[in-house]
UniProtKB/TrEMBL annotation, chain A:
Subcellular location: Cell membrane
UniProt keyword terms in alphabetical order: Cell membrane, Copper, Membrane, Metal-binding, Signal, Transmembrane, Transmembrane helix
Official protein name in the record: CopD family protein
Major place of residence: membrane
Spans through the membrane: 156-176, 185-206, 226-250, 257-277, 289-308, 328-349, 361-381, 402-421
Membrane topology value: Multi-pass membrane protein
Recorded superkingdom: Bacteria
Keyword Transmembrane among record annotations: yes
Automatic annotation (TrEMBL), chain B:
Pfam family, one: DUF1775
The keyword Plastid is assigned to this record: no
Domain of life: Bacteria
Protein name: YcnI family protein
Organism: Mesorhizobium onobrychidis
Amino acid sequence: MSAASLLRTVCTTGRPAICLLAAIVLFAAIAAPSPAFAHAALITTEPADGAVLAQNPAQFSLTFSEPASPLVLTLVQPDGTPVPLTSFRLNGQTIEIDNPQTLGSGTHVLSWRVISADGHPVGGSVLFSIGAPSAAPAVSEAVDRGLRSAIWIGKVFLYIGLFIGVGGAFAIAWLAKGGHSGRRIVIAAILCGLVAAPLSLGLQGLDALGAPFARLAQPGVWQAGLGTSFGWTVLVALVALGLGLLSLVGPRGGAKLFALAGLAGVGAALAASGHASAAEPQWLTRPMVFLHGAGIAFWAGALAPLGLAMRRKPVEAAPFLRRFSQAILPVVAVLAATGIVLAVIQVQAPAALLESTYGRLLLIKLALLFFLFTLAVINRWKLTGPAEAGETEVQRRLCRSIGIEMLIVLAIFGVAAGWRFTPPPRALAIAAVQPASVHIHTPKAMADLSITPGHVGPVAASIVIMTGDFGPLDASQVTLVLSKPDSGIEPIKRAATKRGDGTWRVDDLVVPVPGRWTARLDILISDFEIVKIEAPIDIRP
Amino acid sequence: MNTYLLSACALLALGTGTAFAHVTLETQEAAVGSTYKAILRVPHGCAGKATTAVRVQIPEGVISVKPMPKAGWTLQVKKGKYEKSYQLYDETVTSGAREVDWSGGSLPDEFYDEFDFRGTLAVDLPAGQTLYFPVVQECDGAAERWIEIPAAGQDEDALEYPAPGLKLAPKK
């Protein structure tokens, strides 16, 4: 509802149908399903998920697809008691965690919540057992819809503050040249942002710690939020918002300078966190995000002051309109170019546009952009000339058109804020190649089997074998047998070859269907002695 | 009796189709303390290939083993220490044949042959249990290993390559 009231505040045309359309788009962005995939994907853990250890591990480690820092690390003991893990070191993409105590036998859960450069917290858990598995203690990772909505609304308000507010201040200082139309709206937008920015930090802290709303007042939550890369976004955004406000209400001489610095601050704030800024290569993505953000602020910011100027003081507005229409072409070119580069990096394959939530949001955004560009092109080439010449009817049409542009821009903000909850196909692709792994433990022999990638299609299997008491096991032959009796598939049997590093590998393997397979390892220990061990393994679609 | 026969027939018909392809012992029950003549039946080669070697591991407790030579095959006995000493008549035996190999022959897939040896089943072998004689059947570049021993409670029919078994009867 607050999204709708926001729309009303900024709505200049007063057309309910358009407001409704924008509201629907915003709602769709909230309601879009958000898969629980990791943004920074977990690659390996020590101990491995499902591992059975003979003795107490001295430390744990988590390795991610990109450097990540821990927010909350908890070890849940077999009886359900959580033990916070506070001693850890970052080593590249690996987090090494000290085990503070001697663990009793049974199944433990290493619950982790980390944040990577994109500023989006992700969590998960690793199950391992000491001695023998027991019933796993319950650890839940529920999605807090209320918190998500609040984060989303905070983000939209922050965008309004940065793009319409700071961008508007820039337009007033540089393009309107003395005109004051739209000044109130721009100040209101900046104030919006000044409220939303710190609040977003607290919400980010809640998300980082996986904490409920009730803990918003706790300082630890705010510290956690500030500790994430989003903390930088908020700090830089506050500076940018302050500069924007200063250019409007401060000394006249410095207005232009403050506005320009504010615009740069908008770009910098966006480049400090988010999926796009976290993507590799950083030397390319961060400047791209900076330019994209500054470009949006230039364009979106100019709309409100320009529209209002045209409606109220058409004569004074003519030079404003001329300056804007001259500058907008290169700005749009930069926006489009940077947007395309970032989309290519994030989406990777065209098919991902439809297959992932991230891609679908991008498509919605592109559809909205299409309308926006159509309007902009009509404005630029059909209406601007006559409007500058002083045709009042055309000026009125241009006003209306700018109003609609504003609404579409708001809808785009809503969609873009929805990306906060969806991992980009780039991260999904990293997650998709993660192996399916299983640890098989019997008194006679043990094995760690991983099938990479862990989904249907051509895969490679890697097998490490040990004796039942964790000793080296020198087998003369290892055969992998995959079977899925419920799908009527005959067992797939492949002899493994031994690699120099002591692992056994099967390369020429194709897993035809997803689901729960039975993996059996036939380990020939000596001429007359064979051990067959098996365990279920889940293959993703 | 009739129903017994019928169900036995049904078992044979429905049982694993590969049952006849297994390397088995002709006599599958013998008393401990007796002399046992083991006849290993090799019904065919490895996936169509001719058998070129048959190697059998002598389980602990089978002592004083003597294999029967076969024309066209090189016979070799690998001797070693037993895990414990056995009393054979008045003699204490501590070592003997641990593995018997017939190699260098050729038994085409479409033919059948037997490989024999005799030995004494030590008196202290546990009557009522099954003794397994793991066999490796080698063909040109391939091998079939009849070496699987069922775990406690496991159904022998579930095994893909069961080792030939001998049920131990009480001493007569």
